[in-house]
Amino acid sequence: xKFEIIHKSKKSRARVGKIHTPHGTIDTPSFVAVGTNGxxxxxxxxxxxxxxxxxxFCNTYHLLLQPGIEVVREAGGLHSFINRKQPLIxxxxxxxxxxxxxxxxxxxxxxxxxxxxDGCLLKISEEGALFRSYRDxxxxxxxxxxxxxxxxxxxxxxxxxxxELPPYHIEHDELKKSLARTHRWEKRSLDAHLKNPNNQAIxxxxxxxxxxxxxxxxxxxxxxxxxDGYAIGGSVGKNRDELRELVSFxxxxxxxxxxxxxxxxxxxxxxxxxxxxxxxxFDSSYPTRAARHGFLLTHDGGIKISSTKHAKxxxxxxxxxxxxxxxxxxxxxxxxxxxxxxxxxxxxxxxxNLHYMVSLMDHYRTQIxxxxx
Amino acid sequence: xKFEIIHKSKKSRARVGKIHTPHGTIDTPSFVAVGTNGxxxxxxxxxxxxxxxxxxFCNTYHLLLQPGIEVVREAGGLHSFINRKQPLIxxxxxxxxxxxxxxxxxxxxxxxxxxxxDGCLLKISEEGALFRSYRDxxxxxxxxxxxxxxxxxxxxxxxxxxxELPPYHIEHDELKKSLARTHRWEKRSLDAHLKNPNNQAIxxxxxxxxxxxxxxxxxxxxxxxxxDGYAIGGSVGKNRDELRELVSFxxxxxxxxxxxxxxxxxxxxxxxxxxxxxxxxFDSSYPTRAARHGFLLTHDGGIKISSTKHAKxxxxxxxxxxxxxxxxxxxxxxxxxxxxxxxxxxxxxxxxNLHYMVSLMDHYRTQIxxxxx
Lengths: 373, 373
Description:
- The structure is a homodimer.
- Chain A has helices at 45-51, 60-65, 69-74, 78-82, 94-102, 105-110, 144-154, 172-195, 212-223, 240-250, 268-274, 286-292, 324-328, 331-339, 343-369, and strands at residues 2-8, 15-21, 24-28, 30-34, 56-58, 88-90, 121-124, 129-132, 139-142, 158-159, 201-206, 229-232, 260-262, 281-284, 295-296, 303-304.
- Chain A folds into 2 domains: 2-93 and 146-284, TIM Barrel; 298-373, no CATH class.
- Helices cover 41% and strands 17% of the residues of chain A.
- By secondary structure, the first copy, chain A, is an alpha/beta fold.
- In chain A, the strands form 4 sheets. In chain A, strands 6-5-4-14-13-12-11-10 form an 8-stranded parallel beta sheet. In chain A, strands 1-2-3 form a 3-stranded antiparallel beta sheet. In chain A, strands 7-8-9 form a 3-stranded antiparallel beta sheet.
- The mean pLDDT of chain A is 94.
- In chain A, helix 8 runs parallel beside helix 9.
- Chain A contains 15 helices and 16 strands.
- The A-B interface holds A 37-46, 62, 66-67, 71, 74-75, 81-83, 311-312, 314, 324, 328-330, 332-333, 335-337, 339-340, 342-344, 346-348 and B 37-46, 62, 66-67, 71, 74-75, 81-83, 311-312, 314, 324, 328-330, 332-333, 335-337, 339-340, 342-344, 346-348.
C-alpha cells in the first residue's frame, strides 16, 4: 500500500489523497460501505462496482462463522469469493465479539451501561477472547494471531489488529487495563502480520475511550510501531460534540503521512464536521440501513419515502442525481414499492443512498482541492 | 394488436408466433412473469428488461388497492408509472377477489373444498363482486365495467374481462350457473372495452372447470364474440394429468389465428407438455417464487441452494448460462448469501430463474421451427 497526498487544504486539516492498493486506488476522503457478509444489503457487488464504491468493509467475525474462513481461502480469497475487483478492508472480529458482551454501541449508550448484550462472550484473557458461535454453539478462541491468520486467508487490502472494545460506561482503571492489553494485542497482531505481509496493509487502532490522556498514550504507543495507517476506534463519545472533541484532540497526534480511518461513523453531519479535521476514510452502515428503512439521502435533509405526500411525486428523488434509481424511477413509484413491501424498494433506495455517499465524498474532495474546506 | 404465425410444427399443434403490441413484440410460445405490484419480486424493471422478458403480468386487484388506479392514471399509465417500455398484461381483479372467498387454488385443492379463504368477499351479484379492501376496510364493487375502466387507466397492452372463479370442488349446477354469469360478465366487459379500445387487446377467458361439456360451451360462446385472443382460466384440474387432458380438449376449440394464454401455469413439466398442445403464453410466479425459496432452475432438475453440498462449489449455477448471476457469482457464494439471509441472494437467484425461463422459451421456439416438437 502507498499513500499519496495530493493536496492539503489551506483552510483546515483536510487533505485529498490516494491510497494505492493491490486492487486499485481509494480517493480520500472516502466513504467506506459495510458489506458484513461479503455483500452490501440488497445490492450485488456488480451494482456496487457500477456505483463506484472504492472501499468495502467486511466483517471477519461474520465470515468466520458463515461461510467459514476455509471456504473463502479455497475460493482464492474474499475478492474472488464475492467477485469484487476493488479494494476491501476487514476488521479483526473483536468488535462483534465484544458487542456480544456489552450490547451494541447504541444500546449500551442508551442504557447507561446497565444493559448487557445477550451474546456469547465466554472469557477474555491475555491470550484472547473466547466466544460461542451463534451458528453451531462451537467455542471459538479469537486471538491476535488467529484474527490475523483469518484476515490473511480473507486477503483484504487493509486489515485490522485485534483490540478490545470496552463500553462507554467504564471505570477509569478498567479502561486503562483494557487499553494496555489492547496495545499488547495490537503488537502481537502486527508481529503476526509482518511474518507474512501478503501485500496487505495493517492499520493500528487507537483506543482510550473519551479520556484524552489515554487517547494520547494510545497514539504514542501505536505510532511507534510500523503500522501502515491508523484507525480511531473504541468508544468515540456519546454524541457528536464528544466525537468532534475527541477527533480534534486525537487526529493531530497521528502521523500526517499515513492514512487514517474513523471506525463506524458515517452519518452526514459527522462527515461534514470531521473531513476538515483531517479524517481520510469513514465506514458506516448508516446510508444503506437508512435506505432500507425508507430514508433517502438528499441535499436538503432527506426524504421519508413512506410519507403520503410522495404518493404522486412523479419526479425522481433528486432531479440532478445520476444514480440508476433516479435515472429510471419516480418518488411516487418508490413510495408505492415501499407501501407494497416489495424488496425491490430496498434495492432501489440503497442504490441511491450509496451513490449519494460516493458523490458527496467526490464533492468534498473537489472543495478541498479548491481550499474551500 | 396483431398476431402473426411464423411457423406451425409438422409434429404437433405447437406454433411459433409474434404478438405485435404498441409496446413491442412478444415471441411465442412465451413465458409471462408475474409482477403483481408493478415489479417482479426482488428485481427492478430495468433488470427485467436486460434479461429480455417480453411480457409482464400485473394484478389489477393489487394496483387498485395500492397505489390506487388514480395515481397510475396521473402518472400516465402503468408503463410510465413503473417505467417498463415492453408489453404488459393486466387481469380483471376477479381472480384475487374470488381467492379471498375460496382460498388460494392450492389450499382449496388440498382441503377438498372444506377450507374457505379468510378474505373479504362480501357479496356476488349479477352486477359484480363486492369486497372489502384489506388496506383501509373500504367496500369496493368490482363490476365488468369498473374492471375494464381500471384496466383502461392502467393501459396494459392486453386486458382481461371480469370472470368468476369457482373453486375446483363445486356442484355441477353451481358451476353451470357461475359459467353463465361469467359469460354475461365477459360480454359486458367486451362491450365496455369496445367503447374505448385505446389500442389495447382483450382476451376472453374460457371457463367450465374440468367439465368438458361446459368448457366446450364456453369456447363456443366466447369465440362467437370479437375477443382478440383467448385465455384458459378457472380451475384447470387438480394435477398435471387433468390439466393436460383439459388443454388437449379445449385448445382445439379455440381459433388458431388468435393467440391463446394459459392462466397461472408456468412450472417446467407443464410447459413442456403444453407447448406441443399449442399454448402460446404461460404466466406464473413459480420461477421467481422458487428463486426466493432457494430453488434454482437448471437443465438437470434444479438446485436447492441451501444444501451444504454447494458450500464449496466455486463454479456458477450452470456453466453454459449467460445470465448476470452465472456470469459473476459462484454457487458457493449464492449458498453463503442464502445461509446469511442476505436479500441480495433473492435478487441473484431471481435473475437466474427468470433468465432461465426466457432462454427455455427461446429454445422451444427454435425446436418448433425445426419441427422437433
